[in-house]
Amino acid sequence: MKSRVPVSEIMTKNIIALDRSDDLIRAEQLFKRYKIRHLPVVREEQIIGMLSYTDLLKISFADATDDDLDIESVVYNMYSIEQVMTKDLVSVTSKTAISEVAEILAEKEFHALPVVDDSILVGIVTTTDLIKYLLEQY
Asked: Would you indicate the residue range of the signal peptide (predicted)?
């Protein structure tokens, strides 16, 4: 296995993100449309939080159906993105070694990390990205 390969080699660069003014209905739509599980929340290009599909499931019935439920809308309107998102983030830079990213994901039990260079969100790396990379090595 190659040593010191930067995370920029495996991170997702086409970032699908939420603005802090978006609502949870929009978040659910993005999760389902793009079949993703993590959405960075940004103010301009700076990350201010991360919303996971699991965060949404904790307050809703989002996994119950692909149809819109009135009860979901009511629940979603009770909370803002900022109330549900994780604010205390751990991030890495695009030059961080993949091995270091793996250690952080394993130790902290995260499933995604924002990749930030000079305070700008440049990507996101997930456990899926890491597994795909490891599979390519064997």
From this structure: none
Which DSSP letter does residue 31 get?
A: H
Domain extents for the chain?
7-137
CA 94/CA 10 separation, integer angstroms: 10
Distance CA 34, CA 32 (A): 6
Nearest to 47 by CA among 115, 102, 109: 115
Neighbours of 47 (CB within 10 A): 21
Q: Is the pTM of the predicted complex or chain greater than 0.90? A: no
7-137: CATH number: 3.10.580.10
Q: What's the pLDDT score for residue 121?
A: 96
Which letter does DSSP use for residue 7 in this model?
G
Positive/negative CA dihedral, 117, 19, 37, 12 = negative
